[in-house]
Amino acid sequence: MNLHEYQARARLKAAGIPVPDGDVASTPEAVEQIAQRIGGGVVVKAQVHVGGRGKAGGIKLAADPHEARMNAEKILGMEIKGLTVQKVLVVPAAEIASESYVGVIMDRTSQRPVFMVSPAGGVDIEEVAATTPEKIFKATVDPRFGILPHQAMDLAFHLYDDIAQVRQAATIMRQLYRAFVDAGASLAEINPLITTPDGRVLALDAKLAIDDNELGRRPDVAELRDLSVEEPSEVKARNASLSYIKLDGNVACCVNGAGLAMATMDLVKYYGGEPANFLDIGGSSSPDKVVAALEIITADPNVKSILFNIFGGITRCDDVANGIVTATGQITIDLPIVIRLTGTNEEIAVEILKRAGFEALTDMDAAVKEAVRLAGEAA
Ligand code: GDP
Ligand code: MN
Fold first, then answer.
1. So what's the pLDDT on residue 119?
2. Which residues does the chain have with pLDDT short of 50?
3. 198: CA distance to ligand 1 center in Å?
4. Which residues are catalytic?
5. From the CA of 52, how far away is ligand 1's center (Å)?
6. Own/partner long-range contacts of 232-239 (Cβ < 8 Å, ≥24 apart)
7. Which of 9, 125, 171, 296 is deepest in the core (most CB within 10 A)?
8. Does the Cβ of 53 fall within 6 Å of ligand 1?
């Protein structure tokens, strides 16, 4: 789950990081009022879950409240990378002397949090990593101790020459680490971390990506979820306790178990197809879940064939079969459905499906090939 900038900056502020005051609004009038309250120049910033808002025109400086209102009129409702802007953040315009990058991510290779900093901040950090990797500095954190003072100082010396700024940046890194851990984040990022002409170090942007598995024990973070900006099909899937991720292909996959779901997607690609989604219907599949899964899958207009791949362990094949029959009775599905199931109650399932006019396969390879072929025919 991603947080909006205004949510992330509130958490950074709570951790002690210097963040300019600001407020969110969803109408140009409210933006004007906030700008009036702030006084002087302000920046109006689109609140959407993507980076590169600056380049996309989603961040505009305004000299006075009237201009802030005009900017808000342009930015509210605008689309950035497919997301409609519904809220903007209004902050006092900062004078920038330098822009750097400071971030901490959960690194899978070292299985530890890794700090990354760069004096070449402000712009796309991926681009810096690709073109001038020597400008990125890293430190691996031992989770037992957190980022150590000397590590933070060492990184900060790569950003600034001025010792007062080095100390400020090192403190900010330790505070950022705290915010990262407290939020259950997989990424915490300040880009840009700026210096002002009078020597202060400030966070002008804030990003926190939360590990969804942390939400159960962090209600204060879970309540920050903004459903209005998430993929509707994924929201629906979550409510039905399904693990679903929408993809761009046309072979819909309905599988039990994340490992089998990944293997199924691999096999779809192997036979020249493109999966339309990742979907794990879970270990104990009631017919209801299958109905919800089929509703979600068939709502995606790209889908040209539906592939069930069920390995019955705890999941009973007859439950899945009943789900398929119930769902196809409730919603009209004009798409070819290929069903492969094997394992617990397989014979009963095959019987149920046969009676309803479906064919059931037991071989995964054959089923995937068939689903890819049918999608190709329809495309
Ligand atoms: P992003 O493009 O989505 O990462 O949004 P940022 O919040 O990082 O803003 C992008 C760029 O806009 C920054 O790198 C700055 O160059 C500029 N910017 C943002 N806020 C201010 C500000 O208060 N004053 C000035 N002068 N520039 C700003
Ligand atoms: Mn940024």
1. 97
2. none
3. 18
4. 101, 189
5. 10
6. 233/296, 233/299, 233/300, 236/292, 236/295, 236/296, 237/279, 237/292, 237/293, 237/296
7. 9
8. yes
Give the whole-angstrom CA distance, residue 273 versus residue 325.
26
- Provide the pairing of β-strand 185-195 with 207-210: antiparallel
Per-residue model confidence (pLDDT) at position 45: 98
* C-alpha–C-alpha distance, residues 272 and 141, integer Å: 42
Closest Cα to atom 14 of ligand 1: 122
Contacts of 124 (CB under 8 A, 6+ apart): 51, 52
Please tell me the number of Cα atoms within 13 Å of 70 on its side-chain side: 7
- CA-closest candidate to residue 185, choices 104, 280, 120: 104
Return the sign of the alpha-carbon dihedral for residues 353, 356, 361, 364. Answer: negative
* pTM assigned to the model: 0.80
Alpha-carbon distance 190 to 112, whole Å? 19
Q: How far apart are CA 302 and CA 298, in angstroms?
A: 9
Can you read off the two tokens belonging to residue 197? 């002409």
